[in-house]
Amino acid sequence: MPRDADLKWLLLIHQLPAKPAYLRVKIWRRLQALGAVTVKNAVYALPANAETREDFAWLAKEIVESEGEAIVCEANFIADPAEIAATFERLERTFEQIDGHLHEVRRELTWPIDVDTGQVSSRRTS
What we know:
This protein is α+β, with helices and mostly antiparallel strands and 126 residues long. The chain is built from three helices and four strands; from the N terminus they run βαββαβα. A four-stranded antiparallel β-sheet has the order 2-3-1-4, covered by helices on one side.
């Protein structure tokens, strides 16, 4: 087992094309599903292992095939490992809160709405 200071990280650094706009959301959702943490705008991190290496490789391939740019690299963070772990935990709680809000919004959007359209007349006035 590596010491915390020796823990390697994978970084996905990407640039997405301006269009299609849905691509940004699609990639963001995939990164969320992987549990990747935003280091900076368009730089995401995961602990390095065979599974995360494959996940980032597939995502980078998808980005490049969509006419974007992506690279995956391995890095060590100089920051205190406890600070990094705390950042992951804060982000996890934030994602859970966002997910809860999105479920509420989705429920409200699908809730039947009673609209009073008033009296509808089939006669035309000329």
